[in-house]
């Protein structure tokens, strides 16, 4: 039983490393989350509870339908996750079904003809793990950690930050602040002295020089590093 448990724990950890958001945590933190997952057997046709943060098929399969009556089948090594906290620059990883809301997006889930063994993670269990990591500083525990993981992913995608160590990224993330700008708002004007580096996480903005449009920046673009590093005007 101990060997089986160890193998299942390693299997859960390997799946966590494939999830776009959760995978931004350290290996130690991923192992901590894996330890909060519960493996459970379901008999053929038995209903699987909805509203889970994550469910991973260890063996067997799960069948069901979404709210649009589209069939859904999950086999060994695949998963279903709630994506209400997934807002990334890339598509969801291969191998999983991502629902905007597991309760609303999925009409029913049940064990297949041979039954299924699932590893499940509830929101409560994840919150407890995140609290232990000290990642729930503001708002709900899940929101605080999701914000942290988004910022880590953001930092890793910005070219100027790619060679930073894990500890340096962690320190950087502590200084990243989300700011929203409405349409036609000036972020800064030509000639101003700058002290801020920007990364576009959504939407787009126009860059004008001498009142002439020279570039349009979209999601993933960054700007302001020269003013920050060289203390020169924008």
Q: What does this entry look like structurally?
A:
This protein is α+β, with helices and mostly antiparallel strands. Helices cover 30% and strands 27% of the residues. The protein contains 7 helices and 10 strands. The strands form 3 sheets. Strands 1, 2, 3, 4, 5 and 6 form a 6-stranded mixed sheet that branches. Strands 7-10 form a two-stranded antiparallel ribbon. A two-stranded antiparallel sheet has the order 8-9. Strand 2 and strand 3 (71-75) form a beta hairpin. The longest helix has 17 residues, at 141-157. The chain is elongated and about 70 Å long. The N and C termini lie far apart (63 Å). The model is unreliable at 85-94, 97-105 and 137-141 (pLDDT under 50).
List keywords for this structure.
234 residues, alpha+beta, 7 helices, 27% strand
Topology overview:
Layout: H1 2-16, H2 27-35, E1 38-42, E2 54-66, E3 71-75, E4 79-82, E5 96-99, H3 102-105, E6 106-121, H4 123-133, H5 141-157, H6 166-173, E7 198-199, E8 204-209, E9 212-218, E10 222-223, H7 225-230
Parallel strand pairs: 4-5
Antiparallel strand pairs: 1-6, 2-3, 2-4, 2-6, 7-10, 8-9
Helix pairs in contact: 1-2, 5-6
Total number of strands? 10
> Given the C-alpha coordinates, what overall shape results?
elongated
Tell me the strand percentage band: 25-35%
What do the pLDDT scores average to?
A: 77
Structural class: alpha+beta
Give a summary of the structure in a few sentences:
With 234 residues, this protein is an alpha+beta fold.
